[in-house]
Every structure is written in structure tokens, then in C-alpha cells.
Amino acid sequence: MRTRHWLLLSMTLLLPLAHVAAHHSPTMLYDLSREITVTGIVKEYQLGNPHMRIYLDVETNGTTETWLAEGGSRTQLMRVGWTGKEVVPGDKITARGHPPRDPTAKLIHMTHLTLPDGTERFSEDINYESFTERRRRPE
Amino acid sequence: MRTEPAMNHAQRIKSAVSKLLVGAMIASSFAASAQTADPASPFFGTWSGVFTTQDNEYWTLADIQCFVGCPADFYEGLSALLADPANDMTPAMALAGQAAAAWEAGFATILTPRGKQVRAANRPEDDPKFVNCQPYGFVREVTNPLPLLIRRDGDHLVVRYEEWSLLRNIYLDGRAHPEHKTPTLLGYSVGRVENGALIVETRGVTPDLISDNTLAGHSGELTAVERYTLHENPRRLELSLTLTDPVTFTKPLVMTKTWLYTPDVEIVQDTCSQQPGRADLR
User: Fold this and answer.
1) How many whole angstroms separate alpha carbon B277 and alpha carbon B249?
2) Which of A14, B136, B201, B259 is least enclosed by beta carbons within 10 angstroms?
3) Would you say A56 and A42 are in contact if contact means Cβ atoms under 8 Å apart?
4) Does B128 touch chain A (CB under 8 A)?
């Protein structure tokens, strides 16, 4: 969990920077200082541009709402082995990541996806954690 | 005195054919030589930014902060803060915050009233290019985080961007910009190689967002000059992009972006996510 906390710390520190943008500015849409998880049933999965998206039905207090879990960009995820067949409609998944700034939006910036077999995969483009101590170029 | 025997008809034909073949070989050799002498050839190939090559030790935090391209002032300011040993005990992201604040203060002074108005109105969450399958405008495409491939096709370079699978022509035959041309997403680009730098001037670009980290926009009066230079250790392509737009800026805005030479990276065909956007999820 240490890793996770360090990642969250990095993301928290990113927050004040209007400057800091991921591929499509998650900081603009999402509160990167907080983390939520959303579990539901996959309705649709698209490994496309601008970002990978999974629509899922989430049951809350007896009503079903459709959420959108947004991950990394298509071609970057393909380079690390994503195929677009990770989940299919009907699968039960859990998305872990950041909530939207708009509290009424049914959105999550999904940094991690738990597949039906229980495997959790990093589902974003950039691992910011690996950069926090890369201050200078090698001699 | 010995004299060469006169050639018969068959020998004369054989000799002429031989000369023609030798001539063709020499011409071919010259053509190959001319091809290798193409001043644009060092720029050919596939180039990838920090986004695709995160593990390369060349990159620093400043590079990842600028993986969609960013104002040169910010990049240089943050790089200087990170390089200063006096800041070693300060968290790197706090230094990024300092650099961002310093940049913001300077940037505000170069926006015209119209530029400020456009910037204030830019809301990425409402931008159809953000939520749907619509390619970026010129500046965002040129500085996008995904790999690109540069090759020559006759009188022009073709830049194939992985982002949105867009193709762009850069004419190198010395032509001028057309006087009247309908503005387009990527505009009209003419270029030249000068002292080893590839310099490209683009006009006729439809108004659009400059970047989603500055939130600034530009008008149809934009003139963009890209200056690409090559460097070694590692082999890389550095872009200095100067944006001149009297409607938006009181002085030019300079953006920067770097790619590494990655001959093993293949450009992946981009495919859209066709969906209704986020409005239906509210």
C-alpha cells in the first residue's frame, strides 16, 4: 500500500497546477486528490481515442445507474498489451481511481481496473510515481 | 605500327549497349547520391515522446510535465529548479507548482483582451474534441504525446501522426503560401532545411485551443513557425514552436516538445471512441 499512498501524494501535489495535464487533462475533470472505487456490470467497452472507456451499470440503493470509467489512451495501452478484449458486456468489474469534480457526474478516472478473475491492472498511461525523483539528466 | 581492327556491326552495337549501361549505372549512382544528400533526410523516421518512452533515463519530471508540449518558459523554469542542488530537499511536485505559478504570472501579461476572453471561456470538459472523436487543432496535434513518422514524398515531407492518424504535408520546394485558402485544421505548411534545422511555417489554421494545459486559444490570424533541431545522446528531435497571433498575444508564445528517435516503434492505427460524451452521464 505504500506505493499507492505515494502515488496519491503525487497526484495530490499535482492538483494546484492548472499546467499539469495528462493526455486529456484529467486534472480538469477529476479530483486527483481523492480515490473512489466503483463496482458494476460492463455494458460496453471501447479501447479507443481519446481514452479507453468502460460503461458499466452500477446498482445504488436499489436503482441502476450507468457510469463511465475512463482510463488511458488507446495506442499507449495497446503498447503494453491491452487488446480491447479485456472485458465483455456482462462482466463484473471494479474501477479504482479519481472521482469527478462535478459531483453529479457518474464518472471515474480509472487508474486501476479489477478484472472478473480478480486481477488488477494499471489502466492509465503514465506512472507519475516513477518521475518524482527524476530531477536531472544522467551525467 | 599496329592498328585496331575495325569493329564489325555486332561489335559496334555491343559497345554502344555497354556504354549505355555504364551511363545508366553512373546516372543511377548520381541519383542515389542525390537522395542521400537530401538535407531533410536526418529528420526521417519514427520519433516518440516521453509518453511512449517513459523508461528512458533521459527524461526528467519536467519532460513528463510537458508530455503534451508546453510553454518553453515553464519547461526551462522547472528544469532550472529541479537542477539546483539547493532544492533537493523540496518535493519535486512543489517545484513544479512554483514553476507553474511563475509561468502563469508571465503568461497573463502577453494575452490581449480577446486572448483573455477566449482563455476564460475554454472549458475542456465541454470541448467536443475532448469528449468525442474529433481530431485536435493544429497546435495540439503538432505537440501531441503520441509518436510520429516523417518521410519524404517528392516535393514534400509527410508527417504521419499516430494521434488521430492524421497526415500532414510540408512543402519543401520553395513555394509561397497561397494568398487565399480556406482555413483547415492543420493549415498550409511550407518548410526548408537551414543550417541543419528544419523550419516550417504554417498559416491558414482554423481557430482552436492551443493546449489543454494553457487553456489558451488562437485565432485564424495565427502564424506558426516550427523549428526542429537534431541532437545526440540520445538521438532526439527538439521542437521550438513560435506562435504569433496579434488577435491573441501581444508577443509570440513559444512552445517546446522533444521526441527520441525510436526506429523500433511502429505507428499504431488510431481508432475513435464513438460515444455520446459525458452529458448523458450527468
Assistant:
1) 32
2) B201
3) yes
4) no
CB-CB neighbors (< 8 A) of B125 in chain A:
28-29, 102
Q: Find the CB nearest B268 among A50, A75, A104.
A: A75
Q: Does the predicted model carry a pTM greater than 0.95?
A: no
Cell of A90: 456482462
Q: Establish if A13 touches chain B: CB-CB under 8 angstroms.
A: yes
Per DSSP, helices labelled H in chain A are 2-14, 26-29, 74-79
A33 close to A14: Cβ distance less than 8 angstroms: no
CB-CB contact of B239 with B226 (8 Å): yes
Contacts of B74 in chain A (CB under 8 A): 19
DSSP notation for B16-55 = HHHHHHHHHHHHHHHHHHHHHT-TTGGG-EEEE-TTT-TT
The pLDDT tens digits of the residues spanning B146-200 come to: 999 999 999 999 999 999 889 999 999 999 999 988 999 999 999 999 999 999 9
3-state secondary structure (DSSP) of residue B63: helix
